[in-house]
Amino acid sequence: MRLQAEGRVRSIGVANFHAHHIERIVAETGVTPVVNQVELHPWLPQAELRAFDAARGIRTEAWSPLARGRILGEPVLDRLAAAHGRTPAQIVLRWHLQLGNIVIPKASSAARIRENLDVFDFELGADDLAVIATFETGERTGRDPDFD
Fold it and tell me: SUPFAM superfamilies, per this entry (predicted)?
């Protein structure tokens, strides 16, 4: 907040904040962050938190958007990828975009970066989104912020 007051940064973001963490920071400082980066992928879509953030003008950014690559083993993603002429990773990244998430996937090569960027010329249909919604298990690949 000091850096923002000094004009050195324009925006303040947080990472791994649940709704109650955001409520506390706003109550104690009067500052609402503009972005909340949280673990978010089809196993952990965090719908309630995304809605909470959106209601306060906070953008939600997904970290571990591919569940550290583990989600890519879902056979349903293979079928969706084949139907769209894409890779399973591209299907998941497109899902994020259609939910309104900020998504910046990690990539191991220039080819993977290009592949990750090639998600803006197709859309998943309502049936595709409904199928991906069935993946929700609440499984985390990282720690729960309440227990760190």
Answer: NAD(P)-linked oxidoreductase
